[in-house]
Every structure is written in structure tokens, then in C-alpha cells.
Amino acid sequence: MRDAYREQLDAVTGRLVGMIRKAGEQMHLATKALLDADLEQAEKVVGGDAPINRDQLEIDELVIELMATQGPVASELRTVTAALRTTADIERMGDLAAHIAKIARMRYPDHAVPDELMDTFASMGKTAEQMAEKAGEVLRTRDLASAAELSRDDNEMDQLHRSLFLAFLDDRWDRGVEAAVDIALLGRYYERFADHAVEIAGHVRYLVTGEIQST
Questions:
Q1: How far is residue 57's CA from residue 6's CA, in Å, rounded to a whole number?
Q2: What is the C-alpha separation between 149 and 155, in angstroms, rounded?
Q3: With contact defined as beta carbons under 8 Å apart, do 95 and 49 qualify?
Q4: Distance (Å, rounded) from C-alpha 53 to C-alpha 70?
Q5: Is 65 left (phi over 0), alpha (psi -120 to 50) or beta?
Q6: Suppose 42 and one of 104, 176, 204, 210 were both cysteines; which one would form an S-S bond, judging by CB atoms 3.0 to 4.6 Å apart?
Q7: Alpha helices (H) along 169-211
Q8: Maximum Cα–Cα distance for the chain, whole Å?
Q9: What does the alpha-carbon distance between residue 73 and residue 55 come to, in Å, rounded to a whole number?
Q10: What pLDDT does residue 209 have?
């Protein structure tokens, strides 16, 4: 009986890995829509948010059912608790990718990102995708060394985020207030996406060690 329960817990982990893979794919497409002013891709990302939301509901329902019927203890209880926290983070990552796509859609056929900041946003998109991929690997393997790497990746994202403020607060900025607001929002969306990947690593650390990550 307990073996079947373990298989169900493993299935939850598999669902979480699949869910974060979707969030990473969403970020890839959102960045493409943003940099290319691609309306079709932007619409695809906005529409792709619903399956991630459904994943959260289905996984949460499964976890709650396991808690109610199996009475998890010790590491099993940490597993289901971490799963509930993780679905919330991944769902938010999907939302943030959709927010980026919505700005690309709103500014179409123009580019929301000025030419001089294209490389910065390309780097932010690449970093976000890599962090989502690494977070999925951490969920799958429970490797704490890889979990620690996500904090270093987040520092890189923070540096890119700060560079945006230096750009539009510079006296030479001539793109206007509307563009500055877009850049500030977009930068925040990428930065928060990365933060959620780090938080997922913290949930895995809690699962493995029982230690709660300090904020």
C-alpha cells in the first residue's frame, strides 16, 4: 500500500517538472514575441497560460487528496507541502511570461523594446529560460548543489535588471515616459520570474533538509 503511495508522490514530482517546463517554454516564446514584435507568438503565450493554471489546480487537488487519505509524516509531509508551494510559484512564472507577451501585443506593430536594449532583454530571456530549466532539474534530482547555483543565476538577472534603470533614468534617454514604463514593467517581470525559480529551489532544500529558506 505504501509503495503505491510513493508512486503517487513520484507522479506529483513528474507533473511539477512538466509544469515548469511549460513555464520555461512560455518565457522563450514571450521573449521572442517581445524582441521580434511577433503578434502570433504573443497570442500563443497569452493563450498558453491557461494550461499552466489547470496544471496547478490538478496537482493541488491530487496533493490535498494524498494528504487527506494517506496521512503523510516526516519527509512525505515535506514533499506534499513543498509541492503545494511549488505549484504556486510555477503558476506565477506562467503569469509573468504572459504579462511580457501582453506588452508585446499592446505595442504591436511597434517594438516595445528600444534597439539599444534589445541585447539586454535577450540576455534576460536566456537567463530566465535557463533558470526554469535548472529549477526543473532540481525538482527532479533534488540536487542541492544545483539549487545553490540558482541563487548565483539570480544575481546575474538582478544585474541586468538594474542596468535597465540606468538606461531610462539617464539624462540622454529620449524614448519618453511610456517607453520607460514599459521597460520598467518588463524588467520587473523577468526579475520576478527568476525569483520564483530561486524560491522553488528553496522548497526543494526544505524537502531534503527540513530547513526553511530565509527571505
A1: 21
A2: 10
A3: yes
A4: 26
A5: alpha
A6: 104
A7: 176-209
A8: 68
A9: 25
A10: 85
Alpha-carbon distance of 181 to 186, in angstroms, equals 9
Among 26, 53, 31, 158, CA closest to 103 = 31
The predicted structure's pLDDT at residue 126: 97
Residues of the chain with pLDDT under 70: 1-3, 72-74, 212-215
Comparing CA positions, the residue from 55, 49, 50, 51 lying closest to residue 16 is: 55
Q: What is the pTM of this model?
A: 0.93
One DSSP character per residue, 58-92 reads HHHHHHHHHHHHH---HHHHHHHHHHHHHHHHHHH
C-alpha cell belonging to residue 160:
541586468
Q: Assess whether the previous peptide bond of 51 is cis (omega < 30° from 0).
A: no
- Provide the residue type at 45 as one letter: V
Q: Distance between CA 6 and CA 15 in Å, rounded?
A: 14
User: What pLDDT, on the 0 to 100 scale, is given for residue 2?
Assistant: 60
**9-20: pLDDT as tens digits:** 889 999 999 999
Give CA–CA dist 82/15, Å, rounded: 13
Residue 1, pLDDT score: 45
Q: Which residue type sits at 137?
A: E
Mind listing the pLDDT tens digit for each residue in 50-70?
999 999 999 999 999 888 887
CB distance 125 to 131 below 8 Å: no
Q: Which of 147, 141, 162, 158 lies closest to 197 in space, CA to CA?
A: 147
For cell 541563487, name the residue: 151
- Give the pLDDT score at 68: 83
